[in-house]
Each structure stands twice: as structure tokens, then as C-alpha cells.
Amino acid sequence: MDTRLTAEQDEIRRTLRELLHKRCGPPELRTAVDSPAGHDPLLWSALADRLGLAGLALPERYGGVGCSVTELALACEETGRVLAPSPLLATCVLTAPLILALGTEAQRAGLLPRLAAGSLTAALAVPGPELTAVLGLTCDNSTFSAGGGRAGGVQARRVDGDWQLYGQVDQVLDGHSAGLLLVAAHTGGFARSRTRLFLVAGDAPGAVRTRRTALDATRPQACVQLRDVRAELLGEEDAGDAAVLPALAALGDGAAAVLACEAVGAADRVLERTVEYVGQREQFGRPIGSFQAVKHRLADVYVAVQAARSAAYHAAWAVAHAFAAERASGGPALAQALEALRCAAAEGIQLHGGIGFTWEHDAQLYFKRAAGDELLFGPAHRLRDRAAEAAGLFAGGEAAL
């Protein structure tokens, strides 16, 4: 594995960092998260139009840039540094790959160029267990069902030749503002239960979307209610459902690699800000950063961040190069990155002293990102348990005992 970044990758990082430094400082961040959309539409337009970020990992024939998950992960590392609220995760990491993998040629040609241009945003709505389980990161998703009977979820049925969806999804990232919803729904009744994916316009009659209060305001979530909403099946009508759950599992490893890089960027930035602060704050006539105990604590954080970066880069590289033996590295890399972010954010709050935990200071935003991501995509021990299970590390352990 060649760990050196190419000139193109370096340019992506540099250009993106410069733009975010100008357009997504602390005041702009707080204004964006309090807006109805939960993000700055002008910033998103600049990221999509000027930098092509929305189509970075999409093929050129669909209006994308033609890069891989590696470049998308590097870009998300920069957005993670400033906690930039944007539809990037929901649209480009979670939804667009499923449309590319499972959609018909007409659906790809009609939707992917708009997603790549940033003119259309999308969200993935999966009912039932947490998103990380559906993506196969914390358990085998082969038994996942999008709902049924008293279990709730989302039901799909044929009415006059059209598909209609009825049900509710409680946690949908960017679901309140997305122009397109990709909904997992239960079809076939109990005798022939199966899960299919459906395309639903965000403003479709019968769709009620309510933004929810979230721990991490930079990751807005919504409750989506579907009341006999017309939908379009993703893929061919006679294609069957055998490819849906494997596609979600394959998506999970790539999403984990991208999220790991994003967490590494956030951890690196909060560490930088903490180092800068301890060099300025004085106690007993000298900067507290000169105390050996403070140096040791920050050195531990630095080692954790660098180790997490190596794991995240390796996971992104493995997914981009489709090395099956290495693709299970996404979950462990995300676990390591989440732990590094939580450690960096906690130390940042403590070493900032009395101002570190106040609402006015930005340190609390990084801590909330760490805690929120663990709730959404972790926790770390479950990610590692699933990776160990998938690798067969404990196969035959009971028999051996």
C-alpha cells in the first residue's frame, strides 16, 4: 500500500480547506445549524458547483468527477475539521451509491447528474433498528426487515398499478430538507416478506417530515411519516430483493471509512485548538502547556489521532480498490476514530478550563459530535465485535473449550 497522497488528492484537500476556512467559521456554523435547512445552502452550492464535491465519487458518465471513495474520505476529513453541516453524508455517502448500484439505467441517468451537481439532495430512510445495524456494521443485516404488522416500519403495496408506502421512520439524517427520499419498505406480506428500496419525492403528498432535536445539531435528523405516499421502486420490477441487503452491507463499509476520516479531521482540529490554547493560558507565571502533565496528556491524544488516521486511510484505500480481504477494516477504523475524537474532545474541554464546557465555546460542539456519532454509528465495542465475527476470529471457540 502506497500511503502517499497524489498531487490531485493534495489539491482537493488544500482547496477545500481554504474554502471552508473562509465560509464555515464558528459564527457561520452556528447560523447554519439554526436555519430551517440545518445547513447553509450557499455553502453547499459552492462545494458542489465550484469543487464538484457532491459528485466526487460518482462516474463521469453521470456528471460526477470519477474519483473514488478515497478522495471522498479525504474531503470529508476537511469537512469534519470544521464540523461543516451539509447534505454530503446523507446524499453522497449513503444514498447515491445505492442508486448507482441498484437503480435502472433510466433512474441513474435521471437522478445521479442532479445529485452530482448539488441541485438535488437525498436521504436514506431505513426503519426499525439503528442505521449502523442496517448497514451491517454492528451485526449481520441478513435478518433485517423494514417492518411488518404491529412491528411498525414502512409497508409497500400495489394500488392501481402504483406503489404506495405507509409507515414511519424515526431517525433520518437530513430527512427534513432532502429533495429525495430513498426508503426501505416491507413488501410481499408475511408469507413472502422482503425488503425493497423506493424513491419518494421529498414534497410528495402524504409525506410529513418533522425535524427532531438532536444531540449534535450539525447532524440534523427528522421523523418521516408516509401516509399512502406514491413511490417508485428502485431497480427493475422483476429484479427481486436478493441484492438489497448485500448492497446495504457493502455501503456500510464505505460509509464507515468516510465517517472515520471525518472523525479524524474533527479530532485533529480540536487537538490543534487545544494546543494553541494551552500555549496562551498562563498559570504560576508560565503557559500551562509547558507543564509536563499537560504535555503527556496532549501527546497521548496526538498518538491516538495519528493511529486513527492511519486506520481510516487504510480503510478508504481498501474500499476504493475493492480488496475483499481488507474491506472489513471499515468498522474497526471507525471505532478507532470515534474513540480518538471522544478522547480529543474530552481533553480539549478539560484543558480549556472553565470556558471549555460553556455553550458559547466551540469545544462542546466537538464533544457533541463525538457522542452523537457513537450513538448513530457505534458504539466502538459493537463495531469491533462485528468485525471479529465477520473475520471468524471466534469460530469454533466453544468447541475448543
Shape: globular
Low-confidence stretches: 397-401
Order of helices and strands: HHHHHHEHEEEEEEHEEHHHHH
CATH architecture of the largest domain: Up-down Bundle
The oligomeric state is single chain
Write a concise synopsis of the structure shown.
The protein is an alpha+beta fold.
Topology of helices and strands:
Elements: H1 7-23, H2 26-33, H3 41-50, H4 69-81, H5 88-102, H6 105-117, E1 122-125, H7 131-134, E2 154-159, E3 162-173, E4 180-187, E5 194-201, E6 207-212, E7 221-233, H8 244-278, E8 282-283, E9 286-287, H9 292-320, H10 330-351, H11 363-377, H12 380-390, H13 397-400
Helix pairs in contact: 1-4, 4-8, 4-9, 5-6, 5-8, 8-9, 8-10, 8-11, 9-10, 10-11, 10-12
GO molecular function: acyl-CoA dehydrogenase activity; flavin adenine dinucleotide binding
InterPro entries: Acyl-CoA_Oxase/DH_mid-dom_sf, AcylCo_DH-like_C, AcylCo_DH/oxidase_C, AcylCoA_DH/ox_N, AcylCoA_DH/ox_N_sf, AcylCoA_DH/oxidase_NM_dom_sf
Domain Acyl-CoA dehydrogenase/oxidase N-terminal: 6-118
Can you describe this structure?
- It is a single chain.
- This protein is of the alpha+beta class.
- 49% of the residues lie in helices and 15% in strands.
- The chain has 3 domains: 7-120, Butyryl-Coa Dehydrogenase, subunit A, domain 1, CATH 1.10.540; 123-241, Butyryl-CoA Dehydrogenase, subunit A, domain 2, CATH 2.40.110.10; 245-395, Butyryl-CoA Dehydrogenase, subunit A, domain 3, CATH 1.20.140.10.
- The protein contains 13 helices and 9 strands.
- Strands 1, 2, 3, 4, 5, 6 and 7 form a 7-stranded mixed β-sheet that branches. A two-stranded antiparallel ribbon has the order 8-9.
- The protein starts with 6 loop residues before the first helix and ends with a helix.
